Amino acid sequence: MSTASPATARQAADIITEVGASEKNRPRKSRMRSHYPTWFFIPAIVLYVIFFAIPTVSSFYFSLTRWSLFDSQFIGFANYVQFFQDPQLYTSFIHTLIYAVLTSGAKVILGFLLALLLTSPVVGRGYLRAVVFFPVLLSTIGVGILWKSLLDPFHGMVNAVLGFFGLPQPGWFTDPNLALYTIAGVDIWKGVGIATLIFMAGMVAIPTEYYEAARIDGAGGWNILRRITIPLSRGATATVIILSLIGGLRSFDIIWATTGGGPGFTSDVLASVIYKQYQAGFYGLSTAGNVVLFLVVTLIMVPLSYVLNRKQVEL
Amino acid sequence: MFSRRTTTRVVATLGGIAIAALALAGCSSSGGNSNGPVTISLLAAGNDPASTKFANDLSTAFHKANPKITVKVETRPGGTDGDNLVKTRLSTGDMNDVFLYNSGSLFQALHPDSQLQPLTDESWVKDITDDFKKSVSTSKGTYGAPTATSFNGGIMYNKKVYEKLGLSVPKTWSEFISNSEKIKAAGIVPVIQSYGDTWTSQLFVLADFANVNATDPKWADDYTANKSNAKYSKQPALEGFTHTQEVFDKGLMNKDYASLTNVNALKMLATGEGAQYPMITAVISNVLQSNPDQINDIGYFAMPADSGEPHATVWEPAAAYIPKTTTGDKLAAAKKLVAFINSPTGCDIQNSAGTPAGPFAISTCTVPDNAPALVKDELKYQDDKKTGLALEFLSPIKGPNLEKILIQVGSGISTAQQGAGLYDQDVKAQAQQLGIKGW
Known about the structure:
The complex is a heterodimer.
Chain A: H1 4-32, H2 42-62, E1 65-67, E2 72-74, H3 78-85, H4 89-119, H5 125-137, H6 140-150, H7 157-164, H8 179-204, H9 208-216, H10 221-232, H11 234-249, H12 253-258, H13 270-279, H14 283-314
Antiparallel strand pairs in A: 1-2
Helix pairs in contact in A: 3-14, 4-8, 4-11, 5-8, 8-11, 11-14, 13-14
Chain B: H1 2-25, E1 38-43, H2 49-65, E2 69-74, H3 79-91, E3 98-101, H4 105-108, H5 112-115, H6 130-135, E4 137-138, E5 141-142, E6 145-146, E7 151-158, H7 159-164, H8 173-185, E8 189-191, H9 203-206, H10 209-215, H11 219-224, H12 239-249, H13 262-271, E9 274-280, H14 284-290, E10 298-301, E11 312-315, E12 319-321, H15 328-340, H16 344-353, H17 373-383, E13 387-389, H18 402-410, H19 416-434
Parallel strand pairs in B: 1-2, 1-3, 8-9, 11-13
Antiparallel strand pairs in B: 3-12, 4-5, 6-12, 7-9, 7-10, 7-11
């Protein structure tokens, strides 16, 4: 014990001097290359190559094959031809766009209004913030099953309440004209918490001096909202739009847990069509579908994020 | 006492699953010293109570008869998730020593000649029926032993309702409709549909196949070969779609058809709240669970056709297979286990774990006297030689979207003709993906 402590003290002293030395050297070194020796990156590179690079490249290859898991046969672009001939492709593509725009738009508007409420001095603000955020913490599949039973047309709680008041009791998930919108509603309920959080962070970051100056100049609540809060939350708005639109375009889990794309194909989106192809054992075809989905999301998101971010710079 | 034993069994199963998972994670060991104790693993046909109980009871009884061999049971999801799990395990060489899986087209999709151990020379092969043999064989050999009874598809009906209203079993589709109108007038649901479980929507089409086959015995071959006469958008096969539409158009279905599940539909049928249910008889074991006192009120008749006498569509049972990766002592033990399934003890386990839903596909097992009443109705069709195999045992092609397409037809979203046209396209996609010639 007694011999150990001077040793550790000396080691500690060595470490401190080393740190001091490296700190002195750091500005010069970092201008030329990274802080870390190359072998520091090897684990990350290996993981990246095995789990991201190889699967991505091989998925492009397998999308050109007829693949049964046991063997694969190169068939050129036949899978892509077949994918675009799928009778459900067009409707599912329209459904995807409706779903993405609807959920993204609602999350922006509702999230902004909720953030406005929850950044102003209201009673029980902390509690309300937690309540809005809670659905985000739940598992999507769990949320799907929960709402499926709540909205069951004959035994669900919602329709029981509606029936008690003599109101119509729609088949939320079973009416072909309603299913997609019901799912979008559930998605909004679950996802609006994240949007609210991002907006709140954006609003809190707006310097209070702006508000004070505006008030001295005689601006009312409406003008403050229109001239200060909305323009200065543009960064947050861009983030919410991009995140929720990507989420909406590739949305799958909540649809699968509630309707499975049904009734029939009336709530099918691109991702559920692809998943059903995978289920059917069409591995090459579903891989081709994923490549197409990847391209669609990229084609929509890259220009959009360019536009949104440019506006932010102009500010 | 009973519940404690059940608990122990559940714990043992969970333990078994954990151990099997560990063994799989570490990759199964090969070879082993001969004559010593051997442990093999068995993959059940699903994770529902009946499949789990069958696998566990089989494992226990087999170990009792062969103390040196221990069988670890593992369960798996059913349906298409199960299909993908089985294919993945086979293709990565991680398959259990014995696995239980469908016969017919799903079996053919496993590439049996390269993936499975041939069982052609086993002693029990001579006892299986020709139809079953076809559904577990390729040109190179036989690969599976039956694990349950065969079953029929058609209409399950409530005999008491029929008796009360003085109805007789319909011989044609128009008789079926007029029966249904009378049942409706009596305030009982004439036709139960349960689209809450999407697979149940397919029966008007799938169970009609014996009738299609009776009209045109070459239909299945022509369909596989992409001949223009054997399409669902043309008669005789189209009638399954028009029937699905007709029961909707005439308002003969239960109000909650869009959300009703299979289990609850069977309760409706057993209690007489509904009179007729297009179904496969294999689900009768659920009635034993939910309405044991009313199980014998349920009867069966073959799907009525627009013209001609109705024929019963028969499904062959699932089978037990051994993958190529099982070798040495484990292979010998696995073959013993597969043979044990249709031994006298094995037959008793089949009859007690599930409920016989039709005749056996092997002569060594017999249907017990206390089998549900509908089994006798099925046997009548067999004795009269008015049966035919389901299409999945005669052709490798079954489009994956049939259940969704029929829900559209059966909910008034699209017409029978549109649905049949869509399904023909779906069949084409499947055939192309299987690489079948002529598509």
